[in-house]
């Protein structure tokens, strides 16, 4: 057959005949490969130097010089530069070149130096100049761990730090997890979790854990506890587990009331979630793939201690299974997961989402908000509530596409996140009702007055007429902008918040208690004094941590009996009987008292101002969105009138706070003449130069008894 058997390859007792021509070609190729290795200078220069490192990675400067000394000529080239960049030279010049251009700008890592390389390792960029083609050679670094090429030195340092934080410090292309000694155990709400050293940097670690989000986790736990009291057992999903801290808290405290599923698409995160489950003495049920490939690991006796851990994309998990409670907390915006979340969520279930893309939601990157949420927003005094209504509008549209409506239970916007908790109402009618509450907002850029656009499809001739202010007539040009679409309905459910407050008191969540008290007061739009005030005949109120909470007539025993929850029917009827004190929804948006303060006047204390505004007949409360914000149904003109009435001039600020009697006996609700305000301002300017003039002008503007002070 023309074949000569020159070698036998024994594999599974089978003799393979190899042609002699192929063997000669292989031997010839092997001989050609040996000189290539010497030419490329990939040699074992020292016993401790690994072979898979690039030649630009050395321990000492002398090692780089040894690479150049292999050439016997007097003029020696640079091993890290091409001939057209650095020509061969004598050894003393080469030493200066290697030291100044390569060694001084190197990046050090575990005794090695990653020197800058000018060889054609990276893809070159071709620049066509006339008929000539010039190749642009770029300097770069070679990573000692993954052999990646990085251009900038600062980027190279950050790249190496990411490897260290992930525990990847060994040979390239091999990921080695960090040793146990480098883990840090963090305890929160009686739950222990292991985290990596850079656990608070989301883009640089697989196990993101932010201690600043503790309040967020407590609020979500309280919402889940309320739902667990309505029906049980409920299936809940933590779609982005990271360390698994949130799902572990659910399973550890609620026990048999919940069936917890923790998901993450990262393999290292799934491994850490399993270890954290064992750390908290929980059994793990693995579901790594979409097929029925389950595995139970751990020791346990009760079925309530089992936590299911899945390694899938969050959209895939929510498409495959139905849940009663879903929490979304991705890094950044959660709009990419809303359609999947509302696809299979059960009726009367709860979907909570935490958005951390505050740069776009807080109108710092308006183009990103338009891209992600389809909403036009600007920076306003009420930008945090604007962010919450923007997220709810996106949630409403996603739910409506699945023939579902929503009821907003909670909306919180703080420094680091925006949390929205909604209840899902299945059916086209709730979906239509919710979609009608997504409307545009007319915002005046001069006085920051705002009003939602009226419902209807007819185009109005003058949209500015809907605003209560008259800035359009008194100011030149266009004074208002159209923001939205935004959610125009209520942001809170008072009954649900009160039950969350009970759960926070029961489980000792101190940080959540103070915020929930503010939210209850804000939802009812009442002052703290009115919120805590009660008469002897109010038997359906009980005191929890200094706050009187409206409960059914059976007080706290209607929720807990001998440490156990009552049946589902009783709790549902209890929730139906529970109603907020005010039937009307809370007013939308709020005013910042500092933003509308009067120049040259000392404004009253915030709590006193709330009492003054309440005595004027308006609903008023503080808001968690802004510590100096006032939520009220009073128009901006009346808000300023009350503020002006109870403000005192700056130069008599030592006197007791009280109403400033305006000339002409101006009553509340009437506009203060502009001349009066101008005279006060003129008095301040005159006081700087001639104190006596200030007194004279002030005497002309105000009655004698006020000027005498």
Report on the structure:
With 709 residues, the chain is α+β, with helices and mostly antiparallel strands. Among the domains are: 57-123 and 137-166, no CATH class; 187-288 and 304-455 and 465-495, Rossmann fold, CATH 3.40.50.150; 587-650, Phenylalanyl-tRNA Synthetase, Chain B, domain 1 (2-Layer Sandwich), CATH 3.30.56. It has 23 helices and 32 strands. The strands form eleven sheets. The protein has a nine-stranded mixed beta sheet, sandwiched between helices. Residues 1-51, 127-135, 171-178, 290-302, 529-583, 653-657, 661-681 and 687-709 have low confidence and may be disordered.
Topology, pairings included?
Blueprint: E1 8-10, E2 15-17, H1 20-39, E3 57-58, H2 61-69, H3 91-103, E4 107-109, E5 112-114, E6 125-129, E7 132-136, E8 141-142, E9 149-150, H4 153-166, E10 184-188, E11 191-195, H5 214-230, E12 234-238, H6 245-254, E13 258-263, H7 267-279, E14 283-287, E15 294-297, E16 306-310, H8 314-320, E17 323-328, H9 338-344, E18 345-355, H10 358-361, H11 366-373, H12 383-401, E19 404-413, E20 418-426, H13 428-436, E21 438-444, E22 450-452, H14 471-474, E23 480-487, H15 494-506, H16 510-524, H17 528-532, E24 541-544, E25 547-550, E26 560-561, E27 564-565, H18 568-577, E28 591-592, E29 601-602, H19 606-615, E30 620-622, E31 629-632, H20 636-645, E32 648-649, H21 674-689, H22 691-701, H23 704-707
Parallel strand pairs: 12-13, 12-17, 13-16, 14-16, 17-18
Antiparallel strand pairs: 1-2, 3-5, 4-5, 6-7, 8-9, 10-11, 14-15, 18-20, 19-20, 21-22, 21-23, 24-25, 26-27, 28-31, 29-32, 30-31
Helix pairs in contact: 5-6, 5-15, 8-9, 9-12, 12-13, 15-16, 21-22
């Amino acid at each position: 057959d023309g074949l000569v058997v020159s070698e036998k390859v024994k594999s599974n007792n089978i003799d393979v005949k190899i042609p002699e021509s192929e063997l000669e070609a292989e031997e010839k190729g092997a001989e050609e490969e040996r000189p290539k290795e010497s030419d490329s200078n990939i040699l074992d220069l020292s016993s401790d130097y690994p072979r898979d490192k690039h030649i630009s990675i050395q321990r000492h400067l002398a090692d780089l010089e040894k690479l150049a000394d292999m050439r016997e000529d007097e003029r020696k080239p640079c091993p890290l530069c091409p001939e057209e960049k650095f020509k061969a030279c004598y050894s003393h010049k080469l030493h200066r070149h290697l030291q100044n251009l390569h060694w001084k700008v190197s990046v050090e890592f575990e005794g090695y130096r990653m020197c800058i390389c000018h060889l054609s390792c990276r893809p070159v960029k071709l620049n066509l100049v006339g008929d000539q083609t010039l190749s642009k050679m770029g300097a770069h670094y070679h990573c000692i761990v993954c052999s990646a090429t990085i251009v900038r030195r600062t980027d190279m340092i950050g790249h190496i730090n990411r490897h260290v934080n992930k525990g990847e410090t060994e040979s390239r292309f091999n990921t080695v997890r960090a040793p146990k000694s480098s883990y840090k155990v963090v305890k929160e709400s009686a739950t222990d979790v292991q985290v990596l050293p850079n656990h608070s940097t989301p883009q640089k670690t697989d196990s993101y854990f932010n201690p600043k989000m503790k309040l967020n986790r407590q609020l979500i736990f309280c919402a889940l506890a309320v739902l667990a009291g309505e029906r049980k057992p409920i299936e809940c999903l933590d779609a982005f587990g990271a360390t698994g801290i949130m799902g572990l808290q659910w399973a550890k405290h609620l026990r048999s009331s919940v069936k917890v599923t923790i998901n993450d698409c990262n393999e290292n995160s799934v491994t850490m979630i399993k270890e954290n489950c064992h750390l908290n003495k929980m059994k793990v049920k693995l579901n790594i793939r979409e097929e029925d490939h389950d595995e139970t690991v751990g020791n346990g006796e009760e079925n309530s201690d089992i936590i299911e851990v899945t390694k899938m994309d969050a959209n895939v998990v929510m498409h495959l299974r139905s849940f009663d409670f879903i929490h979304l907390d991705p890094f950044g915006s959660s709009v990419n997961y809303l359609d999947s979340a509302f696809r299979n969520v059960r009726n009367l279930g709860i979907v909570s989402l935490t958005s951390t893309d505050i740069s776009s939601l807080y109108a710092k990157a308006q183009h990103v908000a338009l891209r992600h949420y389809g909403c036009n927003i600007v920076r306003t005094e009420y930008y945090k509530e604007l962010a919450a209504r923007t997220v709810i509008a996106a949630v409403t549209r996603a739910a409506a596409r699945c023939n579902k409506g929503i009821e907003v239970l909670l909306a919180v916007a703080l420094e680091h996140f925006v949390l929205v908790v909604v209840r899902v109402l299945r059916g086209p009618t709730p979906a239509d009702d919710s979609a009608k509450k997504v409307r545009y907002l007319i915002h005046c850029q001069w006085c920051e007055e705002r009003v939602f656009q009226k419902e209807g499809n007819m185009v109005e001739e003058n949209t500015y007429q809907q605003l209560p202010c008259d800035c359009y007539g008194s100011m030149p040009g266009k004074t208002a902008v159209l923001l939205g679409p935004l959610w125009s309905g209520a942001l809170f459910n008072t009954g649900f918040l009160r039950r969350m407050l009970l759960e926070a008191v029961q489980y000792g969540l101190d940080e959540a208690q103070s915020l929930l008290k503010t939210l209850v007061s804000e939802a009812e739009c009442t002052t703290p004094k009115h919120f805590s005030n009660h008469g002897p005949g109010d038997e359906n109120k009980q005191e929890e941590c200094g706050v009187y909470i409206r409960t059914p007539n059976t007080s706290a025993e209607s929720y807990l009996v001998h440490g156990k929850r009552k049946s589902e029917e009783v709790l549902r009827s209890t929730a139906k009987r529970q109603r907020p004190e005010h039937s009307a929804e809370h007013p939308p948006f709020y005013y910042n008292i500092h933003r509308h303060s009067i120049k040259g006047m000392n404004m009253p204390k915030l709590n006193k101002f709330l009492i003054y505004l309440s005595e004027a007949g308006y609903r008023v409360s503080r808001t968690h969105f802004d510590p100096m914000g006032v939520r009220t149904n009073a128009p901006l003109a009346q808000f300023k009138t009350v503020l002006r009435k109870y403000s005192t001039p700056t130069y008599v600020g030592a006197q007791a706070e009280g109403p400033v009697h305006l000339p002409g006996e101006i009553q509340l609700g009437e506009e203060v003449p502009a001349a009066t305000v101008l005279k006060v301002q003129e008095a301040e300017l005159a006081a700087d130069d001639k104190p006596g003039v200030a007194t004279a002008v002030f005497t002309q503007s105000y009655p004698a008894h006020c000027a005498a002070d």
